[in-house]
Design a protein that fits this description.
With about 170 residues, this protein is an alpha+beta fold. The protein contains four helices and ten strands; from the N terminus they run H-E-H-E-H-E-E-H-E-E-E-E-E-E. The longest helix has 13 residues. It is globular and about 40 Å long. About 20% of the residues are buried.
């Protein structure tokens, strides 16, 4: 994986207010029925809404676009979007697929591919589940290619420090 100082990236983000994602539907585009499907699924399952929260950080807003460019070049990708997600101790991102309001536009360009990179050093309690695969204590910088960009996934932080992942959605050049 690219020679990126992930510890420096995390140090930069740890005290920055990113974009909080929670069960507050006022923050979602509820005109897209996919959001309603996910929200209703969570309500029907009676998830603990107080523990459902994560934070997203975006290039050129919260961190350098150079990180995205470096990784995209290494993977041979054109980029549709990228972000870094954070789950704080005691919180989780419940079981879901990612809804993207721009998906139809992306598909006009090329088939969509997705990767995630474990950027926090391995720690007990940091768990990521993608479909039926469980990832924990992953080496920092480990890269994971998704089978499809809309795979079901969840992130859980039962650890003692924030858990960060880098995500990139793009297309093969």
């Amino acid at each position: 994986m690219a020679n990126i100082d992930w510890n420096a990236v995390i140090a930069q983000l740890v005290d920055i207010q990113g974009e909080t994602v929670s069960t507050d539907v006022a923050r979602w585009n509820m005109t897209n029925p996919e959001y309603s499907k996910i929200y209703n699924m969570w309500k029907d399952a009676q998830f603990n809404e107080a523990a459902m929260k994560w934070t997203n950080y975006y290039p050129n807003v919260h961190f350098s676009e150079d990180i995205v460019t470096t990784i995209a070049e290494e993977l041979g990708l054109g980029v549709f979007r990228s972000w870094i997600s954070r789950v704080d101790p005691g919180y989780f991102a419940p079981w879901h697929w990612d809804v993207d309001d721009n998906e139809a536009e992306y598909l006009k360009v090329a088939p969509i591919v997705r990767y995630s990179c474990f950027i926090t050093p391995p720690q007990m309690g940091h768990i990521f589940i993608l479909e039926d695969a469980y990832y924990f204590k992953q080496p920092q910088g480990s890269l994971l290619q998704w089978k499809t960009y809309r795979d079901w996934h969840t992130g859980i932080n039962a650890g003692l420090s924030p858990k960060f992942l880098f995500h990139i959605v793009g297309y093969r050049k």
